[in-house]
Amino acid sequence: MQDLHGALNKITIFADLQDFELDILISRMKRVRFGKGETVFHEGDEGKELYVILDGVIHTSMLLADGTEFFIAAIEKGSFFGDMAIIENAPRSATCRTGEPCDLLSLHRQDFYDIIHLYPDMALKILYQMLTIISGRFKDAGAALSEMVRWGEGARKKAITDEFTGLFNRRFLDESFSTSVSRALGAKKPMSFVMIDMDRFGQLNKEFGEAFGDQAILAASKVFRESFRETDILARYGGDEFSFILPDTDGQRARALCGDMAQRLREVRFPEHPEVTITLSIGIAAVPETADSPAALKEAADKAVYTAKQEGRDRAVLAPSRAAGQQSETKTEICTIAGKKRIVQNIITEIFTHNSFLLLGHKEPDADCIASLVAFALLLAKFQKEVTIFLPDPVIEQLNYLLAICKYNSINVIRDVQTEVTKRIGAAVILDTPKPEMIMTNASVRSVLADPSVRKIEIDHHLHADSCYAGDPGYRLVSNASSACELIGYLALKLSKNPDAQAGETDFFSRNLALAILTGIVGDSQMGKYLKTNKERWYYRIFGGIFDTLLLERTTKNGRNMSSMEDIFAVIRSFSKQENECYGLMKKHLKKTQSVHRIILGEKESEELFDRYGEEIIVNVSKSAADHLAEASKKLGLVVYYDAPDISNLIQFRLRRSAKFLALDLRSVIARLGITNGGGHPGAVGFRMNKDEVTDIYAYGENLAGRIEEILTTAEEKQS
Predict the structure, then answer these.
(1) By the 8 A CB rule, do 6 and 47 touch?
(2) Which of 35, 157, 294, 696 could cross-link with 181 by S-S, CB 3.0 to 4.6 Å?
(3) DSSP characters for 315-352?
(4) pLDDT at residue 228 is higher than 60
(5) In this structure, how many other beta carbons lie within 10 angstroms of the beta carbon of residue 561?
(6) Domains and CATH numbers, the chain
């Protein structure tokens, strides 16, 4: 066993384990040996085991469309593989064979989960290292995709191509998109994104038959390849829809190239139907002139396609450059793991440097906002810091347990920030807030934020088009995640490993910290249903699993406290007596169509509800009502109401998506509708309009529901 101790200590994911923990691990692992050229597992096999390489080299490969295998990478001594299969319970994504004789240790999925549940502190150490390494793999995978582009036709032979046209497929485009944008921004080079719809393709199919429609798609694909470089990513996104990524190409150049390409396609003739001319509606957006984030770039190109169609089709429209007054820095994904580590270390340094912190969230705070304030406050309290949470808006009854945690831990929650408090502030922490104008402030808070001597730290997961930074450069932990609380969980893991972190005898991951972090994770993602990408779902499972285990372990058996993610979610979703009454009154205005169930409240009905229940209840019930309507319709739920006159001059819109309906990213809906004052998540958005812009809210609401139905139908047709 001693020889295995020494070997495992040299493997990164086990480097933090003590000897007795290594004994536990070794007792659950199986040692296996393979000769050179032997297969450990095939692509598509059921994944049940994680492997650690004690000695030797493993070669990974994927099966190509022509039946041959394509070499991906070599995994060397001291590494692990097979992790995604046991974590996600998914089939093997690649074939693994030995490049030379190998000595491996295998850990079965069930043993892996037994360790998580029986030895959570030990599991935490392993999972932390795995997270760091696998995060690097996501980056490396993006780089590998970009390398494949340079191989031209060789890349098109892979499973990432559209079999019919030979262009790249949607999967490849989606995986390449964010990486390409980040690389262009990082290198300060232009990049253009092109979205294309073939004009009146449905009519073409109907009039001349699907076989001719296929012929038209093949002809267009041929022209695309002839018109662009091999380093450009040309993808069939679905049906008659195409998208291109053009590196080192600004918007004007992209429009010229697309114009030449469209002219070539117009000149293509079909002997059996010489009267047919193929035209395109083309939308183009570019970084940095049009947008400075992946989401903003995609939305701008999508709007440009819509404009091309509105203006008569058969044209290329370049999205407008950002106006000088709109040059706020849009939030983008942190480009590298090293960059993320630097930001985390900078924040940790600030935690040790300052004695007094002011914590700020967004207006109309939701579960993730409140939970992130409390979770970050608990981290600071572990280092005996003076913490003030500014919370002028009331908290819904269901989240009072979070305020009770603050009271128990002597964390100051105040409704008003006075000058004497601001004089002591060394750092302000802005949490879960998409843009500066949404921060909960008063005159004293604004003076803190304007003070250059006060460090502004920002932790947020909103990366959509209208998001803008509020924190200082280098202190912005802004990244794609299920919630702000997930990022705090990531920071807590890093902080717990920091040699300067002296939390005394107290267990670093207390029950209250786990409870607060889980509240944000399950609340913002609605138990994971609003997550879109595999990466988001993977991190949700990992962080949810870590803190769910910690919560269970630290909850007394005879207590009535929440002890799981499910318990927390049930509490968040529950209604108080007044909320049930409010929801009942709202439902009297329910209308249904095939896909959009909606409640539209006029100014009078809204005012009556505000007089009876107040803003806190109205905001919470409207969000929950939209969610309930979405589940009932199996697609979308919409709630519309007027703010009380003493609150604002706005009409509020809440749009939600059913958990099982994934055909539509709701952020693209508000982009298609031309709405700029709004945002949210793929499954939940909010937006608002000035009362003066709408003369008849009922007619406007019905028209809005109809337009949403049209967008939804188009999205479903493209998917099919």
Answers:
(1) no
(2) 294
(3) EEEEPPPPPGGG---B----S-HHHHHHHHHHHHHHHH
(4) yes
(5) 12
(6) 2-143 (2.60.120.10), 153-323 (3.30.70.270), 337-570 (3.90.1640.10), 575-719 (3.10.310.30)
**Cβ 434 vs Cβ 462: under 8 Å:** yes
Number of H helices, E strands in the chain: 25, 25
SS3 458: strand
User: What are the tokens at 185?
Assistant: 């921004």
Place of tokens 């318990």: 567
CA dist 259 and 267 (Å) reads 13
Residue scoring higher pLDDT (444 or 193) = 193
Q: Tell me which H or E stretch contains 395.
A: none
For residue 317, give both structure tokens.
């429209």
Residue 511 structure tokens: 């029950």
- How far apart are the C-alpha atoms of 520 and 525, rounded to whole Å? 8
Question: HEC string of 13-67?
Answer: HHCCCCHHHHHHHHHCEEEEEECCCCEEECCCCECCEEEEEEECEEEEEEECCCC
The token pair that represents 432 in the structure block: 């879960």
Q: Report how far Cα 341 is from the mean position of its chain's Cα atoms.
A: 19
Share of the chain above pLDDT 70, in %: 82
Pairing, β 29-34 against β 102-108: antiparallel
Give the pLDDT confidence of 371-380 residue by residue, as tens digits: 999 999 999 9
State phi, psi for 204 to the nearest 5 degrees. Answer: -60, -45
Provide the 10 A C-beta neighbour count for residue 350: 18
| Residue bearing tokens 């005394």 | 504
List the one residue out of 224, 263, 220, 226 whose CA is nearest residue 244: 224
Q: Coil, helix or strand for 177?
A: helix
Q: Please name the residue that has the structure tokens 């949700």.
A: 540
Q: Which two tokens stand for residue 630?
A: 């979405």
Query: What would the pLDDT profile of 609-667 be if each residue is shown by its tens digit?
Result: 999 988 878 988 898 899 889 989 989 999 999 998 888 889 999 999 887 787 788 87
Task: Report which residue type is found at 673.
Answer: L
Tokens describing residue 266:
């117009």
- For 588, phi then psi, to 5°, come to -65, -15
Handedness of CA 167, 172, 177, 182 (dihedral sign): negative
pTM for this entry: 0.53
Parallel, antiparallel, or unpaired: how do β-strands 280-287 and 241-247 relate?
unpaired
The angle subtended at Cα 127 by Cα 124 and Cα 131, nearest 5°, is 135
497 burial (CB, 10 Å; 0-12 / 13-18 / 19+) is middle
pLDDT for the residue numbered 191? 94
Structure-block tokens of residue 166: 């030979």
Cα–Cα distance, 480 to 372 (Å, whole number): 16
Asked if 96 and 40 count as a contact pair (C-beta separation under 8 A), the reply is yes
Q: How far apart are CA 673 and CA 302, in angstroms?
A: 11
């809204």: which residue's tokens? 606
DSSP-derived secondary structure letter, 307: H
Is 491 in contact with 459 (CB distance < 8 Å)?
yes
The answer to whether the beta carbons of residues 672 and 302 sit under 8 Å apart is: yes
Distances in Å between the alpha carbon of 474 and those of 36, 211, 293, 326? 47, 56, 18, 22
Residues 6+ positions from 197 with CB-CB distance below 8 Å: 240, 241, 280, 281, 305, 309
The order of strands in the sheet holding 412-414 is 412-414, 386-390, 356-360, 427-431, 455-460, 476-478
366 compared with 719, residue with greater pLDDT: 366
**Residue type at 697 in one-letter notation:** I
* 618, 612, 645, 392: CA torsion to nearest 10: -60
**In terms of Cα–Cα distance, which of 316, 168, 182 is closest to 254?**
316
Q: Are 419 and 444 in contact (CB under 8 A)?
A: yes
Give the 3-state secondary structure of residue 231.
coil
Q: Please name the amino acid found at residue 533.
A: T
How far is residue 649 from each of residues 434, 603, 608, 618, measured CA to CA in Å?
Answer: 21, 11, 16, 16
Q: Is the preceding omega at residue 91 within 30 degrees of 0, hence cis?
A: no
